[in-house]
Input
Amino acid sequence: MTILPGKHIVNEFQMRRKKTLYQAALPGLTGFVVSFLTIAFSGKQLDETSAIIVLLGFLVFAGGIINATRLYRCPSCENVVLNRSGGHSHMPIDPEHCPRCGAVLKDHKHIEMNL
Output
């Protein structure tokens, strides 16, 4: 495990966050929407083509979730960035700190300069 200085942790995490959005979240959301719309507009029974589209949409959605857990990790401790509260876990969109090790993941000055 490589220990990165604070500024590099922020830069690395922000790069990973963007990759997660483009490589995992958007395809996963697209797969979910395609599956949902296919079911909604196919009526009460799915024909063979609709069932294949739903299955492929679900697989893309599941792949997006798996890819997100591979990419969305803290550069300091390499754990998936998850907030756990009340028995529920969720991935925060732009966390300021790693919930596990406390590393700073968002530097407001850094973000403002790159807008």
